[in-house]
Amino acid sequence: MSERLPLPEEARGRRPVFFDDPAVDTLLGMLLELAQAQWVTRDRLARLEHWATHAVTAAAVPFDDSYALPAEAAQRLAAERDAFVARLFAPVTKA
Amino acid sequence: MTRYVTHDLKLAPRPDEAAAQDFVAALRNHVLNPLAAALKARFEAEVAPSLPAGATGRDVHAALKGDRLFRFYSAARVKAQDMVWASVRTTVARERDALSARFRALALARPAGGTLTLDPALEIPRNVAALDVHRMPGNYHLDGGADDLAAGALYENGLSVFSFGLMGETLDDIGQSIALWLRHRLPDFAPRAILDLGCSVGHQTLPWKRAYRQARVTGLDVAPACLRYAHARAEALGVEAHFLQADATRVPLPDASFDLVFSSMFLHELPRADIRAVFREARRLLRPGGLMLHYELPPNAALSAYDGFYLDWDSHYNSEPFYQGYRDLVPADEVAAAGLVDFLEASVPSLGWYGEEAVIAAARAEGAEASDRLGRLADGVTWYCYGAFRGPNP
Ligand SMILES: C[S@@+](CC[C@H](N)C(=O)[O-])C[C@H]1O[C@@H](n2cnc3c(N)ncnc32)[C@H](O)[C@@H]1O
User: Fold this and answer.
1) I need a surface site. Which of A47, B180, B328, B384 has the fewest CB within 10 A?
2) Ligand 1 atom closest to B200 (CA)
3) Residue partners of B153: CB distance under 8 A and separation at least 6
4) Cβ-defined contact of A13 to B89 (cutoff 8 Å)
5) B33 — contact with chain A (CB < 8 Å)?
6) What ipTM, to 2 d.p.?
């Protein structure tokens, strides 16, 4: 199956531009990529912290990718994520 | 956030990939709920008072184009759209061969007894071949041959991130809501054969089999990898359905062979001439007394100028070139021109959001209730659908 073409990374067609200076559109895109990367790190850190405070003593539980937050902590993290996104956009809705 | 994909074809995103998807879903939720509300408030306070009476969605668009909030809203929404697909692509690429293996096993065992009929000679229509609809890289018809499921997996997992829960826990809220609505709207209707046009991965196909157990249910699409995925998904879920690769404007099935011809989110992706061809095909395929029914974007007539503008955003900025032209059509006129009778339309409350009682109450009400929730993927969505019957005479 290695002869399959890889999945394309970009959509065909013109990418819409909204600001008079297209650099603003580009910068917003870069900012959102950065915010996403920051969130990925935050999520990993939250799992690591949880493991460090709750699981590290049980020597049998190593930290790896399968270590997941329990439901309640995951919910708190989701609320933190929504608040993070809202904070990013707060200046946009101010006049 | 691919968590709404719960059957045997579900992927195992790594925690970093899942966190990236969660971010995109939260971003879309923010843009489509609070930011969209702020945009509407801005419009009402600052733009609406200076618009002439009788202004249309196009006028609203022209008036808002230079607005700073509109620009941020739109630029963020386009970026979020690209991030939807990017957030699932790596996982799909990594598991592409594993998905093929699952497809082979399910297609061999066929535990639900469904079938898959592909037509490698079918010409992919230009409305699919020439663009990447809603900016999905590769589009529906992307095909790596043989057992490739990638386009279907991209579509379903992308939709899971895209809809942040609003398409239901299993992404089939439209089909479930409308099938329940129809059972209560037409309690004596007992279709023996049902056709779903432009079925993609079969999200809204299977609810019909669940609602009408005695019916033979067929899903039709032009996209081979989406159909392979649909077949494997149906078998994994234990629901019998028959998937067929064909063009809905010329269906290779006999006259008068269906009691219900349905489609969902399909017509607005077609050029006008094809929409009309599909309606004529639907009439041909229906038995006398049979029903053609479509879930679609509401037409302009059902909406305020602002809400019309809001829905048409996709036509301008999300590679949905036929969206606005579709919404300009008058459904009642189109079905009449195709020779169908007794037009009906409804706004069906989302089953997942409002619950069963609300859907049943809607089945007892007349007409489609105009609201800014109609057809809009945001909190409290309601689904617009319409249809008509084939009369008793041939
Ligand atoms: C938005 S998707 C439909 C999703 C699906 N019906 C649902 O509601 O979950 C539109 C589908 O229409 C298909 N399509 C487009 N033109 C077609 C045609 N002429 N005949 C059949 N299918 C077509 C595309 O391949 C795509 O899968």
Assistant:
1) B328
2) 27
3) B9, B11, B88, B92, B95, B96, B99, B229
4) no
5) no
6) 0.95
Structure tokens at B196: 């779903």
> Does A19 reach chain B within 8 Å, measured CB to CB?
yes
C-beta B251 within 6 A of ligand 1? no
* Every domain of chain A and the residues it spans: 22-57+68-93
Q: Are the beta carbons of A32 and B150 separated by less than 8 Å?
A: no
**Lateral strand order in the sheet of B242-245:** B115-117, B242-245, B216-221, B193-197, B258-264, B286-296, B382-389, B341-349
CATH class of B164-389: alpha beta
Task: Measure B344 CA to ligand 1 centroid, in angstroms.
Answer: 23
Ligand 1 atom with least separation from CA of B196: 6
Which of helix, strand or coil describes residue A36? helix
Residues B105 and B364: their CA atoms lie apart, in Å, by 44
Question: Measured between alpha carbons, how far is residue B315 from residues A26, B203, B269, B308, B324 in Å?
Answer: 22, 23, 10, 11, 6
**Domain residue extents for chain B:** 2-112+146-160, 164-389
C-alpha B337: how far from chain center = 24
The residue behind tokens 């093929």 is B100
Residue B96 at interface with chain A, using a CB cutoff of 8 Å: yes
Instruction: Going residue by residue through chain B, which has 394 residues, state the pLDDT in tens, using 9 for 90 and above.
Output: 677 898 899 999 999 999 999 999 999 999 999 999 999 999 999 999 999 999 999 999 999 999 999 999 999 999 999 999 999 999 999 999 999 999 999 999 999 999 999 999 999 999 999 999 999 999 999 999 999 999 999 999 999 999 988 899 899 999 999 999 999 999 999 999 999 999 999 999 999 999 999 999 999 999 999 999 999 999 999 999 999 999 999 999 999 999 999 999 999 999 999 999 999 999 999 999 999 999 999 988 888 999 999 999 999 999 999 988 999 999 999 999 999 999 999 999 999 999 999 999 999 987 777 777 888 888 889 999 999 999 987 6
Query: Which of B328, B317, B334 is CA-nearest to residue B279?
Result: B334
DSSP B205-223: THHHHHH-TTSEEEEEES-
Q: Which residue of A has its CA nearest to B71?
A: A18
**Ligand 1 and B320: CB distance under 6 A:** no
Cβ within 8 Å, pair A92-B72: yes
Q: Which of residues 117-146 of B touch A (CB under 8 A)?
A: 131-132, 135-139, 142, 144-146
